[in-house]
From TrEMBL:
PANTHER family in the cross-refs: RIBULOSE-5-PHOSPHATE-3-EPIMERASE (PTHR11749)
NCBIfam families for this protein: PRK05581.1-4, rpe
PROSITE patterns linked: RIBUL_P_3_EPIMER_1
Protein name: Ribulose-phosphate 3-epimerase
Domain of life the protein comes from: Bacteria
Matches recorded under InterPro entries: Aldolase_TIM (IPR013785), Ribul_P_3_epim (IPR026019), Ribul_P_3_epim-like (IPR000056), RibuloseP-bd_barrel (IPR011060)
CDD domains recorded: RPE
Organism whose genome encodes this protein: Enterococcus raffinosus ATCC 49464
Keywords: Isomerase, Metal-binding
Length: 214
């Protein structure tokens, strides 16, 4: 089953609780939460304290996408937020294995993230240590970017690399309802949407997105 994962980075910060309440009323299972350090990416967004506060006020599963340099210095704090899914960028550390193993040891689902310029072949030696693969479909850090079409080929290739394993493919960046459908057809099961959901009519946008990946 393909799922839409709303990205809280796209929500209205002045009405965050309203947006969280809306997503829960819509039976959202997983919330995508960005953590940006101003170094790995230029933007700065939700730190562990803010994520923990959101988590305490929500029933959703939290999927924390770590966009930070030196993830080992932040991982304990992210685990302490209570997030059930945690992903680390392949490009952010020379020790991706140990990051993934630490996430699993803490009883959480471990994800590896690859940037648009990173080939999917790097996933091969990580397959025993991951529950999901997050394929960035924009350059991470800024909302409102255009989906990189070449990502569809990367999703299909990644699906082949995964084979029969129980590993899910997630996509993030520039997704609207038409693109969500294409990503789902290519093999993505977890589809992150920010800007295209939190616009004028959230309810209509969300319904259309869910409908597109049915
Ligand atoms: C961007 C973040 C995304 C962001 C996506 O670096 O990782 O999660 O919220 O926003 P849209 O869907 O608007 O591209
Ligand atoms: Zn993200």
């Amino acid at each position: 089953m393909t799922q839409i994962l709303p990205s809280i980075f796209g929500a209205d910060i002045m009405h965050l609780q309203d947006d969280i309440d809306f997503l829960e009323a819509e039976q959202t299972e997983i919330l995508h939460v960005d953590l940006m350090d101003g170094n790995f990416v230029s933007n700065i967004a939700f730190g562990p304290n803010q994520i923990a506060a959101m988590k305490q006020n929500s029933k959703m599963v939290f999927d924390v996408h770590m966009m930070v340099d030196h993830p080992k210095d932040h991982l304990d704090d992210v685990i302490d937020t209570g997030a059930e899914m945690i992903s680390v960028h392949y490009e952010s550390t020379p020790h991706i294995h140990s990051m993934l193993q630490k996430i699993r040891k803490a009883g959480r689902k471990a994800g590896v993230v690859i940037n648009p310029g990173t080939p999917e072949a790097v996933l091969e030696y990580l397959l025993d240590d991951i529950d999901y693969i997050l394929i960035m479909t924009i350059n991470p850090g800024q909302p409102g970017q255009t989906f990189i079409r070449k990502s569809l080929e990367k999703i299909r290739n990644t699906k082949k690399i995964i084979g029969d394993r129980k590993i899910q493919i997630e996509v993030d960046g520039g997704v609207n309802k038409e693109i969500a459908k294409e990503c789902a057809e290519a093999g993505a099961e977890l589809i992150v949407v920010g800007g295209a959901l939190f616009s004028n009519d959230k309810k209509a946008q969300y319904d259309a997105l869910k409908d597109a990946v049915k």
